[in-house]
Amino acid sequence: MAGWFSFEPSHQKTWGRVPERYVPSMAAADAARMPTIAAIERWLEHAGFAVGEARRVLCNKKLSLADEERQLLIEASLRYAFIDSRELDEGLRLMRADGEAHRGEWIDPRPTYFVVASKPTGHTVGAVSRGS
Question: DSSP label at 122?
Answer without folding.
Answer: S
